[in-house]
Amino acid sequence: MSKRNNISLKTGLAAGFLALASTAFYGCDSGSKSKTLPIYGEREPVERVVNGETVIDTIYHHIPDFAFVDQDSQLVTQETVAGKVYVSDFFFTSCPTICPKMKSQMLRVYEAYKDNPNVVLLSHSIDPEHDTVAVLKDYADRLGIETSKWHMLTGDMDSIYKIAEQYLAAARVDEGAEGGFSHSGDFYLIDQQRRIRGHYNGTLEEDVDRLIKDIPLLLSQKEHETK
Amino acid sequence: MRQNKLVMVAMAGFALTTLTQCFTKKKDEGKRLYEQHCQSCHMDDGSGLKGLIPPLANADYLQTHRDALPCIIRHGMDGSIIVNGVEYNKEMPGVDLRADHITNLLNYIQTNFGNDNPRYTLTEVQELLESCPPER
């Protein structure tokens, strides 16, 4: 009796697995053709009256306005990324743990989109008191990067932590179901409307491969969308 | 009474696992130590990070500063250095490892990542560690 139960349980499990695997396959297949990226974070329905009819618009979570200073002492704001796709992360120059790995991975993104003016990288220092413009300048020079493409940001500590929450919070909402949490080593992919469209573990090569492949999906999206 | 017995069993089990672990891990200890303490900065392949963190792979520094390496691992280093013709200047934290661990770690580095340098003996490393420059 118990043995039989066992077997049926096993076959049941196997069938379940097969079903799961096949959906996973399907998911991949249909995805590769005209894949669109999800929009992360909370959304709010907003009612609006057009020609006497009520329509419901969805307001998506987006990164609020910001103002930081980069390695060349230039002010970097939402204007800097206006109409562009950008990748953002958080680090500090004296970090001994995951940051060197993140920076070596971000360099790959940099190399891949070096010549595309519609892609920008923003790395925020979470230790802005130590990471002054001069420190960031030295760091950036040693990485051999161009400021106009990859801004290393410093500024008011509170503002940096507040904006970090805006990235993190949205990603976290999405992962809630899996009980996962967002790494501080994440890269965030932001679209032309400053909505979060992806987050990737910045220390994992495979995840960063995915990021590099996802960026064109947002770049082409811009052409289809009528503003 | 019963509890004592349980503790004994647990302790024996613990001793046994640590012992077997010692045997199986001894050979790879250098690699394990590298992954644990060094890889985050010097990278999986010892390539370092551009002008920020110097490479260990094919690094001339490993040969030219062979005698200084045990102390560098234990006490870290800072200031400007040249590795393979490139200048680096960033602080590296030290790791307070035992002499035998440092020996295994250094031998791993000296014979991997494209390096083919002579190995250290434990006595050699112990002697070098005794004469580390005073810490600042």
UniProtKB/TrEMBL annotation, chain A:
Domain Thioredoxin: from-to ranges: 57-220
Family: Belongs to the SCO1/2 family.
Source organism (scientific name): Pontibacter mucosus
Positions annotated to bind Cu cation: C95, C99, H183
Gene Ontology MF: a single term: metal ion binding
Cystine crosslinks: C95-C99
CDD domains: SCO (cd02968)
Membrane-spanning parts: none
Superkingdom per UniProt: Bacteria
Keyword line: Copper, Disulfide bond, Metal-binding, Signal
InterPro entries reported in the protein's UniProt record: SCO1/SenC, Thioredoxin-like_sf, Thioredoxin_domain
Protein name as it appears in the record: Protein SCO1/2
Signal peptide feature range: 1-26
Pfam families, per database record: SCO1-SenC (PF02630)
Automatic annotation (TrEMBL), chain B:
GO MF, one example: heme binding
Record keyword Membrane present: no
Start and end residues of each Cytochrome c domain: 25-113
Keywords per UniProt: Heme, Iron, Metal-binding
Keyword Zinc tagged: no
Lineage: superkingdom: Bacteria
InterPro entries assigned to the protein according to its UniProt record, in alphabetical order: Cyt_c-like_dom (IPR009056), Cyt_c-like_dom_sf (IPR036909), Cytochrome_c-type_DH (IPR051459)
Signal peptide segment: none
Classification via PANTHER family: BLL4482 PROTEIN-RELATED, CYTOCHROME C DOMAIN-CONTAINING PROTEIN
Record protein name field: Cbb3-type cytochrome c oxidase subunit III
Organism, scientific name: Pontibacter mucosus
